[in-house]
TrEMBL record, chain A:
GO terms for cellular component: plasma membrane. Pfam families: Fer4_9. Keywords: 4Fe-4S, Iron, Iron-sulfur, Membrane, Metal-binding, Oxidoreductase, Transmembrane, Transmembrane helix. InterPro entries: 4Fe4S_Fe-S-bd (IPR017896), 4Fe4S_Fe_S_CS (IPR017900), HdrC_iron-sulfur_subunit (IPR051460), Helical_ferredxn (IPR009051), NarG-like_sf (IPR036197). GO terms for molecular function: 4 iron, 4 sulfur cluster binding; metal ion binding; oxidoreductase activity. The chain crosses the membrane at residues 6-23, 63-87, 107-128, 212-230. Gene3D superfamilies: Alpha-helical ferredoxin, Transmembrane di-heme cytochromes, Chain C. This is 4Fe-4S dicluster protein. Residues 293-323, 357-387 form the 4Fe-4S ferredoxin-type domain. It comes from the Bacteria.
UniProtKB/TrEMBL annotation, chain B:
It comes from Mucilaginibacter frigoritolerans. Coiled coil: none annotated. Keywords: 4Fe-4S, Iron, Iron-sulfur, Metal-binding, Oxidoreductase. It comes from the Bacteria. Transmembrane segments: none annotated. Residues 26-111, 152-240 form the Cysteine-rich domain. One of its GO terms (molecular function) is metal ion binding. GO terms for cellular component: plasma membrane. This is Cysteine-rich domain-containing protein. The lineage of its organism: Bacteria, Pseudomonadati, Bacteroidota, Sphingobacteriia, Sphingobacteriales.
């Protein structure tokens, strides 16, 4: 009874805390400007199924794709086992699914064990890639202590959880063979039977190990759940809505700013009255709240894999720009804005902004808008849109474009070409 | 066979309208195609192709103006929309329905960004026109220069490839040649930018360890290509600069898809 009560208290506390933190992230995302991503739901579901569920954009890097797939499938399928563990915890039962599922139960437990081993292996390989092989993709200016530790924590926690799960099964299996207490014969143990010989033969010691691992595993999972909102690992949840709300237009198409359309129309036709006034706001983005909720959702979705940065032509040629940093800076800044709201109320303004305090102009002006980053992202994040919005602010609100671009603007405006040629000479090529 | 002196009279929309005629397609030349000396050759070659297959076409001539692409990518949405609306007025006044562009940037802008401002046209890039003409049997690779023995590669322009998923059309123009085709290490959706996009063409690059076109040259040298096919006037500039920088002008040629087509057909 005590164990059951304790379990239920921990479970409720974990779910409450997690919901609270997810609620904060949701609130932060909604601090962004409105943007309509609701058209064509059929195509959106398909995109989500293909890209998030089917992970089709991962295959460009086959080794990472296979390893990631093990962890992903392991995560989803082993959750069935977590359901049983939860029910056992609540009702004080043991292997509650074994009776109703019969022979299928043995198959399932056997399958979970194999998946657990694959997850374990993939996490070890990933740790080696990061810490021994030092893959270039996992370094860079934005990969400071926290992002590196975050990745290692995630992998280590997963290794520990899988170890606990398999050790628990190994002890359970041995207890089953000893016909000890309530340890009914249930499940098959293709992996953990190899761990068995390492464990003691004493039934009470085995029971201690089994219970210890059971608690470690489930409390570990609940703790990990509460780690997610602070971690890049949050992508396991946001990858789904983020791909659902993907940009469905051709990548080359940039948004037309409606606020500008109104002004341009009013300039061309003084009798023009804009349809709706909408949010006045500024042109472009100086801070995260000038971005759309989708941009902010993407910042929380980013798992810092660095595929974007590794294909960025500017980054590859030594420029400061790193699309991953754009996303990480956006996330850090919106988190900071959220904290300010929690501490000082919703009207509080600090004297910081995404531009200059986080992202420098040098980074923004290095972008060639080539869309390599958006193409590379396995969950359809678009750093280019944030870069463009910030350029818009610099150009239209501050008039601080690089001098050579101002010259180009002047030429387009006066001669209808980006160079200083007279429009009268535009057709000379035909002569 | 090749006749460099063949002069074609390029019709303008204004002249055709004066005669009460409506061409089937408008050839949108673009700023580079109009003013850049190297790109002008490509423009003339596109006209030769149109003329050769007998499509009724016209250009806007001095009535054409920048689409606003470089302004938009650089963040000047005002200037972009001013340009766009002025251009849409001109295009609509001539009741233009179909446009072929000589530049992926013009192509992308008119095709994707003008509809939101009221400009709706069927827009294709000249590589798509060439592919269409090949499919219809109107263009072959005969009667002109042979490309036998050449090792040809193709550099994907960002705004044609990733930007609009046009990967096969320009390759179709190369596949009909009697030549060895080779892909660059980074091609199609993995293609590396030439370095000119996003208005970089009009500014000095930010501080770095090397130029983007030098990075691209490494791919070209690795592929041991003797002819690099381009489909964008800005890529053309960057690739030629890259070749020049490597001192490989004798070994590596850079030609547009339209130029290759014209040469192969002896137009």
């Amino acid at each position: 009874m005590i164990a059951q009560s304790l379990f239920i208290i921990i479970l409720i506390a974990a779910i409450y805390l997690f919901s609270k933190n997810v609620g904060k992230i949701r609130r932060n995302i909604l601090l962004g400007k409105s943007a309509d991503h609701s058209d064509n739901p059929a195509l959106r579901w398909k995109t989500m199924a293909r890209i998030a569920l089917g992970q089709t954009k991962m295959v460009k890097r086959p080794l990472a794709a296979v390893m990631h797939f093990f962890i992903y499938v392991g995560f989803i399928i082993i959750n069935l086992e977590v359901l049983e563990i939860m029910l056992d915890g609540i009702f004080g039962s043991h292997r509650i699914f074994s009776k109703p599922l019969g022979g299928l139960y043995d198959l399932l437990i056997g399958g979970f064990e194999i998946l657990a081993l694959l997850v374990f292996t993939a996490c070890v390989v990933f740790l080696c890639r990061r810490n021994i092989a030092h893959l270039k993709r996992f370094s860079g200016v934005e990969m400071t202590t926290w992002p590196k530790s975050d990745a290692n924590y995630i992998l280590t926690i997963e290794i520990l959880l899988m170890t606990a799960f398999l050790t628990m099964n190994a002890a359970d299996h041995k207890l089953q063979l000893l016909n000890f207490g309530h340890y009914i014969k249930a499940g098959s143990f293709p992996v953990s039977s190899f761990i068995g010989p390492l464990l003691p033969d004493n039934a009470h010691a085995l029971e201690m190990i089994e219970r210890g691992c059971w608690w470690f595993h489930i409390v570990g999972i609940l703790a990990f759940l509460n780690y997610l909102p602070y971690s890049k690992h949050f992508h396991i949840l946001l990858a789904f809505p983020n791909t659902y709300y993907s940009n469905l237009h051709p990548k080359g198409q940039f948004t037309n700013m409606a606020s500008v359309t109104n002004e341009v129309k009013a300039m061309l036709d003084p009798s023009f009255v804009p349809e709706t006034t909408g949010e006045p706001g500024r042109f472009g983005a100086k801070d995260v709240t000038d971005l759309t909720w989708k941009n902010l959702m993407e910042a929380y979705t980013c798992t810092e894999c660095g595929r974007c940065t590794s294909v960025c032509p500017a980054n590859q040629t030594g420029k400061l720009l790193s699309p991953r940093k754009i996303m990480m800076d956006t996330r850090d800044r919106i988190t900071e804005v959220g904290k300010n709201i929690d501490q000082h109320g919703k009207d509080y303004k600090d004297d910081k902004s995404l531009l200059d305090n986080y992202i420098t102009r040098e980074e923004l002006w290095a972008c060639t808008t080539c869309n390599a980053c958006t193409d590379a992202c396995p969950v359809n994040i678009n750093p280019l849109e944030i870069i463009t919005e910030m350029r818009r602010y610099i150009v239209m609100e501050e008039s601080q474009a690089p001098a050579s671009l101002n010259t180009m603007f002047g030429n387009v405006e006066n001669n209808g070409a980006p160079w200083k040629y007279s429009n009268a000479d535009r057709f000379n090529w035909s002569e | 066979m090749e006749n460099p002196n063949s002069e074609i009279k390029v019709p303008t929309m204004a002249a055709m309208a004066a005669e009460g005629k409506q061409p089937e397609i408008l050839f949108w030349v673009g700023c580079a195609g109009s003013f850049d000396e190297r790109a002008q050759k490509i423009t003339r070659d596109i006209c030769k192709i149109l003329h050769h297959v007998g499509i009724s076409y016209a250009v806007l001539g001095t009535e054409e103006s920048c689409t606003g692409d470089p302004a938009k990518r650089a963040g000047n949405e005002f200037l972009f929309q001013m340009q766009a609306m002025a251009n849409i007025q001109v295009l609509d006044a001539y009741q233009v329905k179909k446009i072929v562009t000589g530049c992926p940037h013009c192509f992308n802008t008119i095709k994707n960004e003008y509809p939101g401002l009221g400009g709706n046209y069927e827009v294709i890039h000249h590589s798509q026109l060439i592919q269409q003409l090949i499919d219809e049997g109107k263009l072959k690779a005969e009667g002109g220069e042979s490309f036998k023995g050449k090792k040809i590669t193709y550099h994907d322009p960002c705004y044609l490839g990733r930007g609009n998923n046009v990967y096969e059309a320009p390759r179709a123009a190369l596949e009909i040649l009697d030549a060895e085709l080779v892909e660059l290490k980074r091609c199609k959706s993995n293609g590396l930018c030439c370095g000119a996009g996003g208005a970089q063409m009009f500014k000095e690059p930010e501080k770095g360890t090397k130029e983007i076109n030098a990075e691209r040259m490494a791919d070209i040298l690795e592929a041991k290509a003797t002819l690099v096919a381009a489909a964008c006037p800005f890529c053309m500039t960057m690739l030629r600069d890259g070749v020049k920088h490597e001192d490989k002008e004798q070994e590596i040629q850079v030609l547009d898809i339209a130029e290759i087509t014209v040469r192969a057909n002896g137009l």
